[in-house]
Amino acid sequence: MDVLFQRSRATAAEIMENIPEPPSYSAVRAMLRILEEKGHIRHEQDGPRYVFLPTVTRDKAKRSALDHHLDTFFEGSAAQAVATLLDRSGPKISDDELDRLSRLIEKARKEEV
């Protein structure tokens, strides 16, 4: 999806060229088929080639992917996901990012009331 969002349209071969360490061509085609079945992309015929285009916005795709990850790995719990992000080793979250998270938490609290 990232390649399609960046380029706005691409063939399977072009997608492979823009993925670091890409899987096989058949794996890319299978993923494109699944994304098309789910309505995230569509294709147009360009001679013998299929050219793929996104049908959803990047934000909608992000939300869909995040919902899937929350359900799969965190039992649907945003709190568990955030706790995992905060507890992980790796790049530290900046003070600005922590401040933004604090503001979002306060906003969510006020919206619940």
Structure description:
- The chain is mainly alpha-helical.
- The protein has two domains: 2-54, Arc Repressor Mutant, subunit A; 78-113.
- The protein is 61% helix and 11% strand.
- The chain is built from six helices and two strands, in the order αααββααα.
- The protein has helices at residues 2-7, 12-17, 25-37, 58-73, 78-87, 95-112, and strands at 41-46, 49-54.
- The protein has a two-stranded antiparallel ribbon with strand order 1-2.
- A hairpin with a 2-residue loop joins strand 1 and strand 2.
- The longest helix is centred in the C-terminal third of the chain and has 18 residues, at 95-112.
- The mean pLDDT is 92.
* Number of helical elements: 6
Radius of gyration: 18 Å
Mean pLDDT: 92
Order of helices and strands: HHHEEHHH
The spatial strand order of the largest sheet comes to 1-2
How many separate domains make up the residues? 2
Look up the CATH topology of the largest domain: Arc Repressor Mutant, subunit A
Structural class category = mainly alpha
Major pleated sheet: 2 strands, antiparallel
Strand content: 5-15%
The N- to C-terminal Cα distance equals 37 Å
Describe the SSE topology.
Elements: H1 2-7, H2 12-17, H3 25-37, E1 41-46, E2 49-54, H4 58-73, H5 78-87, H6 95-112
Notable characteristics:
113 residues, Arc Repressor Mutant, subunit A, two-stranded antiparallel sheet
